Write a sequence for this structure.
């Protein structure tokens, strides 16, 4: 499994570099905050960390992780959406 | 069937992230790209909930509701001018979530961490200590991301002064704490007689060191280098997620989603690295030079005497309006001062007025203008200035020659001709906007105080330059008023 993980990690790094390379400056901020939202993927791990009702270290850390990761995802995507709607220009406006 | 749903949603989710990021590098498709990525995230969460099956959802639902509520409200309410610190804050939370997951997995291990059992039993030839190594790295990178981002947040929001804070022997302290983290990590993972309690203690110490390191790394870096810092921390938050993915590979409730974390973390890591590289290139400085910090510190404190200005011309709004009258082309160079004064709407007004009078208005945006990558673009977009009017440095530098008036709004170092004329200047070699080539240059600046580099700007003494010593918003509003009265 570790080997598969390493393969996936390295290939995804290269894929990311290839896919992103040319970004117009207008999109630097949205790309950053959008990527930031994607880093909230850690929520997938967090969900598996609070699986009982008990008041244990496991669940407390898990709960906190879920809260923070969700803030990261939801906040990141919403804020990026807001910014990108502005780039639509006056025609689309901010509605 | 259940496996199919779980892995299907992960696979489609990952593909949506890649499509989404791809689309986010083109203006026309960016909005849809972001939505695709958000759908990908939703799929990943659904897949995980299916994978968890029948468990107690008390903590999960509470977490999702609280986090989603805070995130949505914060994102809706934030002003566009506060965007840099918002991004920094979200980023820090992502890093924190990553190391919390790692900690939680650790606390789920009964008494003795699995990787120790595996290693001592040596039943697992390759993966024995991997979970441990990944856990230590997740704590390290996640911890640095959290506190580093919080310091960046404090500096950007003005809760903390933007000036570099220089500790004596800071490089030694930083390297020392970094080395200590690695050594303690190695002891925790590979040490022969570490019991469950001992490794637990080591984990806490490692996290504490990582948190301290995040603070130490960012405090010596000045405000204007924040675009580099934010992009780098963004990259770190991705790497932290990947490392947490490696922790999850070791087993546990969410192990099926481990590859998802690894893939997405790597994508974010790559995006951050690319942006970091772009920002460094735009300042003609190496990443190491930026991270070493303290840039501009010596210049501003010691250079006062010999950096005095000769005669500079000051300009009233009325005279400024006369320069603008009848100009065929005006180029506006926005800088951080525009963000501070929140002058974007005043600029839009001036733009509309000039266009109505037959003057073409363009914007020259330096890649590191402002406090985050693309800062100026976001602000001007908020004021409904179409992005087609915003030009990159390379695209507009040839046009200043044919421009009657260049208006510099709160920018300084990025228009300092010393960068190309004086090989001994601290900013020598930094690509600049050639605004000095315009027939007239109006510099809107509150005082002659030096910019971030701490050096004087010889542009201000040029015969074609004149200064409006005013707040950016007031100055632009003044120009609008006078232009209307002409």
């Amino acid at each position: 499994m570790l080997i598969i993980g390493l393969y996936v990690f390295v290939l995804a790094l290269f894929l990311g570099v290839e896919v992103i390379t040319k970004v117009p400056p207008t999109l630097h901020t949205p790309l950053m905050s959008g990527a930031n939202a994607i880093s909230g993927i850690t929520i997938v791990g967090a969900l598996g960390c609070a699986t009982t009702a008990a008041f244990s270290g496991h669940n407390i850390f898990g709960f906190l992780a879920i809260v923070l990761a969700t803030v990261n995802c939801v906040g990141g995507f919403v804020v990026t959406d807001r910014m990108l709607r502005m780039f639509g220009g006056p025609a689309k406006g901010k509605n | 069937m259940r496996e199919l749903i779980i892995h299907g949603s992960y696979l489609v989710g990952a593909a949506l992230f890649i499509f989404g990021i791809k689309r986010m590098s083109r203006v026309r498709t960016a909005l849809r790209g972001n939505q695709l990525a958000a759908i990908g995230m939703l799929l990943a969460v659904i897949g995980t909930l299916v994978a968890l099956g029948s468990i107690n959802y008390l903590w999960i639902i509470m977490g999702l509701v609280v986090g989603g509520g805070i995130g949505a409200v914060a994102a809706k309410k934030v002003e566009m001018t506060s965007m840099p610190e918002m991004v920094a804050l979200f980023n820090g939370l992502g890093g924190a979530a990553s190391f919390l997951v790692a900690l939680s997995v650790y606390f789920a291990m009964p008494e003795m961490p699995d990787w120790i059992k595996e290693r001592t039993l040596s039943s697992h030839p390759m993966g024995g200590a991997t979970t441990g190594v990944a856990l230590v790295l997740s704590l390290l990178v996640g911890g640095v991301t959290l506190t580093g981002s919080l310091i960046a947040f404090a500096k950007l929001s003005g809760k903390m002064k933007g000036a570099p804070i220089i500790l004596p022997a800071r490089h030694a302290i930083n390297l020392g704490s970094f080395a200590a983290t690695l050594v303690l990590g190695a002891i925790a993972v590979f040490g022969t007689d570490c019991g469950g309690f001992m490794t637990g203690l080591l984990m806490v110490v490692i996290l504490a060191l990582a948190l301290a390191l995040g603070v130490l790394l960012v405090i010596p870096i000045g405000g204007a280098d924040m675009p580099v810092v934010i992009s780098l921390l963004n990259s770190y938050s991705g790497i932290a997620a990947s490392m947490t993915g490696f922790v999850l590979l070791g087993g546990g409730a969410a192990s099926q989603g481990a590859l998802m974390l690894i893939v997405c973390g790597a994508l974010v890591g790559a995006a951050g690295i690319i942006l970091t590289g772009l920002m460094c290139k735009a300042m003609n400085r190496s990443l190491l030079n930026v991270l070493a910090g303290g840039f501009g510190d010596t210049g501003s404190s010691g250079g006062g005497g010999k950096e005095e200005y000769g005669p500079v011309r000051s300009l009233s709004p009325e005279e400024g309006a006369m320069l603008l009258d009848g100009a065929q082309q005006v180029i506006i160079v926005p800088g951080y001062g525009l963000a501070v004064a929140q002058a974007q709407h005043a600029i839009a007004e001036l733009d509309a007025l000039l266009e109505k009078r037959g003057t073409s208005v363009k914007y020259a945006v330096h890649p590191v203008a402002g406090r985050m990558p693309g800062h100026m673009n976001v602000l001007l977009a908020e004021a409904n200035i179409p992005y087609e009017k915003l030009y990159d440095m390379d695209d507009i530098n040839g046009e200043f020659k044919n421009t009657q008036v260049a208006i510099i709004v709160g920018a300084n170092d990025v228009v300092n001709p010393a960068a190309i004329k004086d090989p001994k200047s601290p900013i020598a070699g930094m690509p600049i906007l050639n605004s000095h080539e315009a027939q007239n240059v109006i510099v809107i600046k509150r005082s002659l105080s030096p910019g971030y580099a701490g050096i004087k700007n010889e542009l201000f003494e040029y015969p074609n330059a004149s200064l409006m010593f005013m707040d950016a918003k007031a100055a632009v509003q003044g120009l609008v008023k006078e232009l209307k009265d002409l």
Q: What stands out?
A: Helices of chain A lie at 2-20, 28-38, 43-47, 57-87. Chain A touches chain B through 84 residues (CB under 8 Å). Residues 57-87 of chain A form the longest helix (31 residues).
